[in-house]
Amino acid sequence: METHPVYRFGSFRLDAAAKVIFRNEQPLHLTRKAVETLVVLAARSPEVATKEEIMAAVWPDRVVDEANLAQNIAVIRKALGASPGEPAYIETFPGRGYRLLGPVTAERSEGAAATASAVAEPLPEAADVPAQAPRRRWTGAAGMILLLGVVVLLLVIIRREDPKPAVTVTPVTRLAGKEFQPAISPDGSAVAFVWQESEQALPSIWLQRFSEGAPRQLSTPGYSWSSPVWSPDGRQIACLRFGASSGDIVILPAAGGEPRVVAPVLPTRFGLGYYHLDWSPDGTTLAVDDSPSLSQPLSIFLIRLDTGEKRRLTQPEEMIIGDVAPRFSPDGKTVAFIRAFHRSYQEVFTVPVSGGAPRQWTSDSRMVTGVDWSAEGLLAGSSRGGSYRIWRMAPGKEPSPTGIYGEFPIQFTYSRRQARLVYSLIQNDPNVWRLSFGPPVAWKRIAASSGQDASPQYSPDGKRIAFRSDRTGDEQIWVCDAEGGNPVQATSGKGRPSVPRWSPDGRRLVFNDAATTEMFIAEEDGGSWTVRPFGARGVHPVFSPDGRVIYAAAAGAILRYAAAGGAAGIVTPVRALSLDVSPDGRYVYFVREPADTTLSRVDVSTGEVERVLSGLVPYCTSCWALDEHGIYYLGVRPKAPVLQSVFHLDWKGRSPRLVADYPEPILPIGIGPFSLSPDRRSMLVVRLDPSNADVMRADGFR
């Protein structure tokens, strides 16, 4: 059996071969690249690992910038939770690298993972090795260090032997907060981008010329701005501007000046981080994703700048988010776009400007965050390989990966003329929090990882929480205790579990696959979980309070199934999303459309439907929770479109009461539903940790 190093420092055990780390023998959930970064730091401790050494070892075949390394370090620090000066804390040496504080000891373990019986051996320090130290111990440890050193050295040499890499990556902006949606000018000399200085600030449009030292603001304050795109002559920038209850396409002079309103659009793009606008190569037309109302999915529309004529180009199916991110082809005859079926999967399409049936380019059921045209076909930012990269696509060929890689979704635009790409990594980190109603109101983070943790649900007795997380790479359902401890993975495989909902006895969970709508039951037995098909399809299934019935939405209706299985009965022929049942079992509450702001309910005995609430945050279809007296829900403060708050509506008084303001806006899609504790003193919600994003430039990209 081959041996491999297992490092120990503080309360942590790091297995270099299995790429796993434990705290007090409990696994921590880190991305593979974060673990690989930590392995290099542990192997080099107590010395400093240079940035070049780490990047060569962790990303030997990819073009990355130091922002990826800095983000990995931030994720590791968050997961380890060590304070400055303590073992496991990572010191930063500006301009040089990082060092893991120890002491660090190394074990030799056989096989692919560490064993509890392995014998710990300290890492030797050449000047302090006692003359009487056992030869076997010194030789084995030195051999490991020598081998790792040779590997790192070879990688560094290989990296340095290419003095003119095909692609060079340099930062364009390094501002506080997030810079995203970068758009490169037609001549490749400047970038327009969106800057949001803090989670509470309104996004604004800025311009950075590569020949100038600092960016300058183009947009006027008081609005939320999005999706800058250049005119073909490089003199103007079109973008979206959102007010408290209005949305417009606006053109800004690149040299500065008053904005010109082109046309109104839907007054929100809550939770949708895509580009929403593009300018045709001949300068006559804008393409925008829009919808006549919140009750319909987004479609691609063409707007003539000379006449204002607006023509629908695509018509996606109902009950999906819709078509977003339009991009004109170089000849202006075709528009590429992303069809967003669900929060966790999208596909790339193209459609002729003259109209017709769209052509589908991908069938990956993965996240697609950006699309643009290349000389051979298309470029797409996608998670199809398991991590986010930009992929090349040509007709009749399999997509091929480029060297532009990131741990987070990628937004980009490409200049074919200059072979120059600008991009930004969108770092969103949702975690599960408990909101205690007080007084005073208090927040506590319960379930967190470097991945996406969402859709929390209290068990009926309040002692456990089921939630959805991609902390191991794929979205799965997890169960932990009420304080977030002892997490156990309840599902596995390549399915896309939706919201887990408990049975009244707390032994089962019902959920559907987000991609196929097939429903499943997860059952617990002796602390382990097994999953079986329910034998029917539906969306957002939920148990009745007595556990005898499962309600689900399917085929344009709310259906009723016996929990033991069997044929479906129709509760009401109304399409629905995000179901929940009133505590007395009389009503099923639901939202009709993905962007609907109205909550309705149906009497399960009579089938009578009525609307009960208006004012939900668009696209946050499940951001609400029922109690015996009313409903808690996520809404927007009047005249403050980015200030989201939790309200309670009492059925008797019919007047909303402010419960708490969110410390930062959330991205609504895929974070709910809320979940009340059995004692009604608190509620599980999802919040976004503060994040950072910079604009990068890749020269020589072809």
The CATH fourth-level homologous superfamily of the largest domain:
TolB, C-terminal domain
Q: Major sheet: size, sense and barrel closure?
A: 6 strands, antiparallel
> Whole-number radius of gyration?
27 Å
Helix content: under 10%
Structure report:
This protein is mainly β and 702 residues long. It folds into three domains: 3-160, Arc Repressor Mutant, subunit A (Orthogonal Bundle), CATH 1.10.10; 168-426, 6 Propeller (Neuraminidase); 447-688, Neuraminidase, CATH 2.120.10. The protein contains four helices and 57 strands. It has a six-stranded antiparallel beta sheet with strand order 4-3-2-1-8-9. A four-stranded antiparallel beta sheet has the order 10-57-32-31, with no helix packed on it. α1 (32-44) packs across α2, α1 crosses α3 (66-80) and α2 packs across α4 (135-160). It is globular, with a radius of gyration of 27 Å. Mean pLDDT is 85; it is low at 111-165.
List descriptors.
3 domains, 702 residues, 44% strand, Neuraminidase, 9% helix, 4-stranded antiparallel beta sheet, mainly beta, Arc Repressor Mutant, subunit A
Topology:
Elements: E1 3-9, E2 12-15, E3 20-23, E4 26-28, H1 32-44, E5 49-50, H2 51-58, H3 66-80, E6 90-93, E7 97-100, E8 105-110, E9 120-122, H4 135-160, E10 168-171, E11 178-184, E12 190-196, E13 204-209, E14 216-217, E15 224-230, E16 236-242, E17 247-253, E18 260-264, E19 277-279, E20 285-290, E21 299-304, E22 310-312, E23 322-328, E24 334-342, E25 345-352, E26 359-360, E27 368-373, E28 378-382, E29 388-393, E30 400-406, E31 410-415, E32 420-425, E33 429-436, E34 442-447, E35 453-458, E36 464-469, E37 476-481, E38 488-489, E39 501-502, E40 508-512, E41 518-525, E42 528-537, E43 539-543, E44 549-554, E45 557-562, E46 569-572, E47 577-581, E48 587-591, E49 598-603, E50 609-614, E51 624-626, E52 630-636, E53 644-650, E54 656-661, E55 675-676, E56 682-689, E57 695-699
Antiparallel strand pairs: 1-2, 1-8, 2-3, 3-4, 5-7, 6-7, 8-9, 10-57, 11-12, 12-13, 13-14, 15-16, 16-17, 17-18, 19-20, 20-21, 21-22, 23-24, 24-25, 25-26, 27-28, 28-29, 29-30, 31-32, 32-57, 33-34, 33-56, 35-36, 36-37, 37-38, 39-40, 40-41, 41-42, 43-44, 44-45, 45-46, 47-48, 48-49, 49-50, 51-52, ...
